[in-house]
Amino acid sequence: MITLLRGGDLYDPEPRGRGDLLLAGGRIAALGDGLSDAPSGWPVEEVDVSGLLVVPGLVDTHTHMTGGGGEGGAHTRVPPLFVEQLTRAGVTTAIGLLGTDGTTRSLAELLASARGLAHYGLTALTYTGGYEVPPPTLTGSVRGDLVHVDRMVAVGELAISDHRSAQPTLNELLRIAADAHVSGLMTGKAGLVHLHLGDGPRGLSLVREALAVSELPPRVFHPTHCNRNRRLWEEAKDCAPWASPSTSPPSPKKATSPAPGRPWRSGSSAACPRPGSRCPATAAAACPASPPTATSSAWASATPEGSSTPCARPPPWVSPFSAPWPPAPPTPPRCSASVKKASSPQASTPTSPCSPRSSPSGA
Known about the structure:
Helix content: 10-25%
Order of helices and strands: EEEEEEHEHEHEHEHEHHEE
Largest sheet: 6 strands, parallel
Number of helices: 7
Strand content: 15-25%
Distance between the termini: 95 Å
C-alpha cells in the first residue's frame, strides 16, 4: 500500500514547512514540496492533510495499558486502553506499567495487553516492577525479567517521595537501579528505573544521594511527574544537566569550598547540590572540602585551622519552595566553653556540655 499525504506541515522533528509525504511499505519513501503524481494504475491513496501537522510517531513512556486508578476503591478503577486512544494522539510507541494497584493488576496482564496492542501495529513495550519493594517480577528477579522477556525494557514505575510508595531506602533503590543498569548492558535495552515522584517534601533527594554515593550513571534514573508542583519542577531542572550523556556528577572528593552560606555544588555550577549539605556560615574555607551529608561524622570532629571551635554540622539542602527535609539534626554544642573554677585549688571543673562523663567510682 502506498499513501501520499498532500500539503501538511512537516516536522522531522524540526519544522520542514509545508510539503508532501510519500509512504510505501510502512516507511517514508519521499518528502518534499509538490511531489509528482504516481504512475497510472499504481495503488496509491492520496490524502489532503492541509492545515494538519505531520510529525514522527510519538513515544509515550508512561502508559497504563491495563487501566489506572483503584486507590480510592474498586469503583475508581480506570478501564484498559484501546489502541485508537493512542494512535489518535499520535502515539506509535507505548511503554506500559502498573500504577498504585499492583495487587488486582499484574505484570502478566500488562504483558498480555502489550501483545494485544502490538497486534494492531503499535510498538508496545512494558516495564517490570511497580510501586512495591521488592519489585514484582515474572521470572523472580528484575534482571531475569529484563534479560529474558523481550518486551520488558526497564523497571517502573517505582514510587518515591509519595505517601503511597513502599518508602524505599537508599540501598533498595541502588540495588534495583544496579540490576536495571547491568541488564541494559547485557541486552541493549534502556536499563533504567522509571520513577514516580510524589508531592512529598523529600523530592529528588533520594536520587541525588544515590548519584553521590554510587558509580551508576545519571541516565539510569528517569523521574516522572516532576511538573506536579513548582518546587519539584525547579529541583528537577537543577538536576537535569546530570542526565546528559556527556555529563556525570563529579566525585565529592573534587568539590571545592563554596562561599559561606552557599549550597555545595560539586565541580560545575550546573550540578545539583549534594543532599543535606550547606557550608557553615563561618570559617567556610577551613572546614572540610568534601560536602558531607547531614549525618556525616566528619563534621562533628573537624576543626578549622587556627580555631578551637569545631565546624557546625550542616543543615540539609533547602529548596526555595519548601521547608528543609529531612529535618536538620541538632547543632552539636561547641566545645570551647569556659571553665569554672572548683572550690578545690587542685582541680577545675569544665562546664562545657561536651565534657566526657565522669568515670564511676572504682572503675
